[in-house]
Amino acid sequence: MSPEPSQNGDTKPQKPLHELLTHTLVDLYVGEENSHYPLHEKLLCYHSPYFASIFYNKSSSSSRTKEYGLPEVDDTTFGLFVGWLYSRALRYPEQESEIGPLLDLYFLASKLEMAALETDIVDTVRAFYHNNETYPGLRRVQYVYANTDEDNVMREMMVGSVARFLTLSDSIPEHWAKALKKNGQLSVDIIRSIQEWHLEARNVPDARDASVDRGRNEFKGAVGFSAVEGSSEMEDVKEESEEEEEAHVNGNGTA
Fold this sequence. Notes:
By secondary structure, this protein is mostly helical. The chain is built from 13 helices and 7 strands. Strands 4-3-5 form a 3-stranded mixed sheet. A hairpin with a 5-residue loop joins β1 and β2. α7 (115-131) packs parallel to α9 and α8 (138-147) runs antiparallel to α9.
């Protein structure tokens, strides 16, 4: 659970839950079916500047009616949101398929300007991949790129993980090779991430040094870079397979 950030970016002491559970409730209507969620106004606005600007703005109709709609949000995502709002805790994912809903919650938290929730989600996703000694699959990364802007923390964590995955691999999986050729920004971000490692020059091979014969990669008759891209043998590095990734994509295209 992360400290609550203030408007200037500093952290502030977190108010006890009982101080935020006042008598005033607001009615939120979620999804295409307008599912009704009555929530404590003070609690909601304390954690979300977005909602504070709506319900504490006297010129806003929602301030008078105490109602607001989120038709683009699904019930699963909002259920996770409500759970965090009243507990300040996230359920740790037991399997990779549970990362998708957490990413949807992250995008909602970004919309609602809830930095503490965003941080908790990044920490949870980061811990899952680290504890399971695996890496985000391509579809996860693409989904994050499609829903975030540059300098986003979740994006940076994802691309940093991919940079390590590809650097420690003896080959580039075919689906990653195709994606990197199409998405120039992802390729640039991977290089940026590697630069942030601040490697010492002595630890990086120097292709200009003719005194060292490093040989060239070879795979099924291919020599050089094409051998690296063509090989599918990945030792000691785990990434979600294409089949697993496909299984985790729902009918709405959510990763």
